[in-house]
Amino acid sequence: MATAFTHWGTYELTVSDGRIDAVRGVAADPDPSPIAQNLLDVADHPLRIRRPAVRRGFLEEVDTGRRSLEEAPARRRGGEPFVELSWADAAALAAAELDRVRVEHGNAAIFAGSYGWASAGRFHYAQGQLYRFLNLLGGFTISRDSYSYAAAQVIVPHIVAPWFDVLGNHTSYEVLARHGRLVLALGGLPAKNQQVENGGTYRHQGAAGLRLLREAGVRIISVSPLHGDVADELGASWLPIRPGTDTALLLGIAHTLVTEGLHDEAFLERCCSGVERFLASLAGRDATWAAAICGLDAETIRDLARDLAAGPSMVTASWSLQRAEHGEQAYWATVAVAALLGQIGTPGGGFGLGYGSVNRVGSAEHGFSLPRLPTGPNPVDSFIPVARITELLDNPGGSFTYDGCTYTYPDTRLVYWCGGNPFHHHQDLGSLVAAWQRPETVIVHEQVWNPLARHADIVLPISHTLERDDFGSSPLTGTIVAMPKVLDPPGEARSDHAAFAAIAAELGLLDAFTEGLDEAGWLRRLWTETRKRAAAQGADLPGFEEFWAMGVTELPRPARPRVLLEAFRADPEANPLRTPSGRIELYSPVIDAFGLADCPPTPTWLEPLEWAGSSVAERFPLHLLSNQPVAKLHSQLDFGRASVATKRSGREVLRMHPADAAARGLDDGDIARVFNDRGACLASVGLTDDLRRGVVVLPTGSWYDPLVGGDPSSMCVHGNPNVLTSGRPASALSQAPAAQSCLVEVERFVGEVPPVRAHTPPSFVADPRPR
Ligand SMILES: Nc1nc2c(c(=O)[nH]1)N[C@H]1C(S)=C(S)[C@@H](COP(=O)(O)OP(=O)(O)OC[C@H]3O[C@@H](n4cnc5c(=O)[nH]c(N)nc54)[C@H](O)[C@@H]3O)O[C@H]1N2
Ligand SMILES: Nc1nc2c(c(=O)[nH]1)N[C@H]1C(S)=C(S)[C@@H](COP(=O)(O)OP(=O)(O)OC[C@H]3O[C@@H](n4cnc5c(=O)[nH]c(N)nc54)[C@H](O)[C@@H]3O)O[C@H]1N2
Ligand SMILES: [Mo]
Question: Out of 25, 43, 74, 313, which residue is the most buried by the measure of CB atoms under 10 Å away?
Fold first, then answer.
């Protein structure tokens, strides 16, 4: 028996003859995730990368010195065959490229933000290895914030508190069940998302937490275009809102509260600042105004306001709400409504920003963070907001604003990616594919021939987490899990650490990188640090060998019921918030001074460029939601059996209302072309009346599969929604991704349906260079 510790849970594996025969949740997990069944397809899958490889044209570009796109117009990353190389040749080539770019253009010309979830083990955490390596080489341009909640990360500190202070201190479900009465859930509380936790999951707690609410009789009202965003067993009522309009709904609720005198003036007076300005901004924002925007009845909105004011009420918004144009406003309006209700800091009410988005939010436990691999300082200070990758590549020397300041995009010559997949996570993939041709060199560490590997120049084959020794801990429960190697890596695949060590050796940095330790030595060093850290929390962990033999160890659990902002509410003078006023800011003078048209200083409904009410809807009348996939984590193991089972004939399913389908002559199972001005993809039509009319849903995660590789205008035949989504930022404040603001049209695909090749490796040719 062996153990796998992953972002989606901890599993016992039965392994024989180098294959995994069975995957079962550990006994301690009440709710193991079906995502784990994808692990059955990891070992030796045909998509695994077995040897280092380079893009054929890249060899020629290096030999001839034609490095810029202007000099190498035939370059077609994503559409060229690969040449396999030895590790020695590949490491030497990577080292030479890094050194050349560093010397000729400076370290800021290396972009290695390398956003992505990678895998759960601590030592082998991909970005940690990458950052350590590149910092030793003199640094690199990094990225800030996360695709998950970038808008929140920038706005929430201005209005309440540093984002992670809010995120990590949400009132627990146990407390809410005991003291709550009503939960208004914007974006629902999707069980599918609670399967996952960044860093690793030991016990799944989200579903059980929500059941506690049900058992205690706490009512849930789900405001979401999708009925299925709350599990049926929770008996929630459903308000099918128009996507992208929650801010209007919330302001309509706020207006009703104030005009009917239902707001808590004492709380506003004691705990908030900018109240006058905010209340004045509500003029004309009544329920009737809101109803016309959000597509719910005015009377429903007024009743909702009264219902919320009648007793303890929690107003919570899923992260999807801020992954949209003006996503900052939806979060600000959520906090503002909770402030008017006056229950922030009480056990039964207040606000939440992410219940239902991951396993962690609402848990009563609070975990333990393992020490990291030391990465050292990055001597380079240039950065991009995480979702500005296309602009970075397209616009060297151009400027961008971020949180009130102006910065410059460096001139990127080399891109290094390790542990993430931009051809999964980024929006407007056609534009990314075009911009991606610009840098001189793209180095990628990958496990599988996914779209990122296909768009690289130098591809290094990396072992899967099951193929190396490591340990990890659930940031939530403080459970530390040993992760002994279970399988041999396929072919010549190695760990990221071994790959960096090979390149470091070429650059004379081997000793600095490894400090003379092998991987086993590093695990022990990290364990020594872990013991120290645990001791500081009063926990006595065993020595490494004993821990490795035990397999799992748990830190004692602090049994403190958690209530968000409890201390602040109890005494706002003694426990001020870390905002300029020390209070919850309903008007922000700081944001006002930024003078941004798309981020006003009070929570405001601003019309997005793409929503059902905009002029774009005349040509593209359907609102596309691209939410998280139910049977995988992002794009990881898309070829695994749980993921494949959600597709139809190998294609992603586009969920659509029967009336919208009928109006287009579409039937269940038809192959549809989903399109807008940015791109197109094929998908299999799946009819359901569990969504609002005018809304279609195509989950993320199906590997981008362009008809013609490397062609920015090619349609994706597999059903990746990011060929359709917009790269426009949420606002100039955060520059955050805004994938949910996306309009499309859908039609029957005519002609011969092209085959899906996403799960077929690219083609290989012999090394064209003379020996
Ligand atoms: N349209 C739309 N797009 C979205 C979203 C959306 O809601 N709608 N959501 C966004 C969100 S919230 C997120 S977080 C992002 C997720 O985007 P990512 O985190 O980039 O997606 P993953 O598929 O998890 O990418 C991880 C990659 O790392 C590789 N990998 C795993 N372990 C290792 C390792 O040890 N070493 C190396 N070298 N590689 C490894 C995997 O094979 C995989 O290709 O997507 C974003 N994109
Ligand atoms: N199974 C699985 N779980 C995951 C992940 C995964 O890849 N797979 N990824 C994890 C990650 S990285 C993250 S960041 C979280 C993301 O967590 P979320 O951002 O909360 O997840 P989504 O699935 O994008 O969105 C949740 C729901 O919000 C609704 N919604 C979308 N737009 C709107 C709107 O304008 N208004 C309202 N009211 N509702 C709207 C959609 O119907 C959608 O189903 O999920 C995590 N959980
Ligand atoms: Mo995310």
Answer: 313
pLDDT at 369: 83
Written as six digits, the tokens of 388 are 């500005």
Q: Any idea what DSSP says for residue 466? A: G
| Angle at 666 (CA atoms; ends 654, 672), nearest 5 degrees | 45
- Quick one: pLDDT at residue 260? 98
pTM assigned to the model: 0.98
438-461: pLDDT as tens digits: 999 999 999 999 999 999 999 999
Average pLDDT over residues 182-188: 98
The helix/strand/coil state of 732 is coil
DSSP bridge partners of 23: 13
Neighbours of 771 (CB within 10 A): 3
Cα(472) to ligand 2 centroid in Å equals: 25
Closest ligand relative to 633 C-alpha: 2
Distance of alpha carbon 261 from alpha carbon 578, whole angstroms: 30
Residue 83, SS3 per DSSP: strand
The enclosing H or E element of 388 equals none
Q: Can you tell me the mean pLDDT for 298-325?
A: 98
Length of the chain equals: 771
In this prediction, residue 558 has a pLDDT band, given cuts at 50, 70 and 90, of low
Crossing angle of helices 298-309/246-259, nearest 10°?
Answer: 60
CB 745 within 8 A of CB 622: yes
- Rounded distance between C-alpha atoms, residue 485 and residue 468, angstroms: 4
- Rounded Cα distance, 358 and 188, in Å: 12
CA of residue 627 to ligand 2 center, whole Å: 5
What residues pair up with 11 in beta bridges, in sequence order? 4, 25
Q: Express each pLDDT in 527-545 by its tens digit.
A: 999 999 999 888 899 999 9
User: What does the pLDDT look like over 140-178, one tens digit per residue?
Assistant: 999 999 999 999 999 999 999 999 999 999 999 999 999
Instruction: Tell me which of 237, 357, 688, 697 to substitute to probe ligand 2's pocket, judged by most ligand atoms within 8 Å of the beta carbon.
Output: 357
Q: What is the mean pLDDT of residues 332-344?
A: 98
Instruction: Provide the mean pLDDT of the chain.
Output: 97
pLDDT digit string, tens, across residues 353-376: 999 999 999 988 877 788 999 999
Q: In what order do the strands lie in the sheet with 9-16?
A: 2-6, 9-16, 19-25
Determine the Cα–Cα distance for residues 379 and 612; give it in Å rounded to an integer.
46
Cα 419 to ligand 1 centre (Å): 8
Residue 149 is among the residues annotated as catalytic for this protein = no
Q: Which two tokens stand for residue 383?
A: 């950065």
Q: How far apart are CA 374 and CA 107, in angstroms?
A: 20
| Whole-number Å distance between alpha carbons of 80 and 763 | 8
**117 an active-site residue?**
yes
Query: Which one of the listed residues 8, 11, 87, 115 is annotated catalytic?
Result: 115
CA–CA gap between residue 614 and residue 276 (Å, rounded): 31
Is pLDDT at 559 greater than 80 in this prediction? no
Residue 577 has pLDDT above 80, yes or no: yes
DSSP helix/strand/coil, 622 = strand
Terminal-to-terminal C-alpha distance of the chain: 48
- Mean pLDDT score, 277-289: 98
- Rounded Cα distance between 330 and 332, Å, is 6
DSSP 282-318: TTT--HHHHHHHHSS-HHHHHHHHHHHHTS-EEEEE-
User: Side chain identity at 642, as an amino acid letter?
Assistant: A
Cβ contact 8:202 at 8 Å: no
* Residue of minimum CA distance from atom 19 in ligand 1: 116
Going from the C-alpha of 657 to that of each of 307, 529, 663, 721, the distances in angstroms are: 30, 54, 10, 18
**Burial of residue 347, with CB atoms counted within 10 A of its CB: 0-12 exposed, 13-18 middle, 19 or more buried:** buried
Contact residues for 680 (Cβ-Cβ < 8 A; gap 6+): 673, 674, 715, 716, 723, 724
Confidence of residue 16 (pLDDT cuts 50, 70, 90): very high
In DSSP terms, 144 is beta-bridged to 385
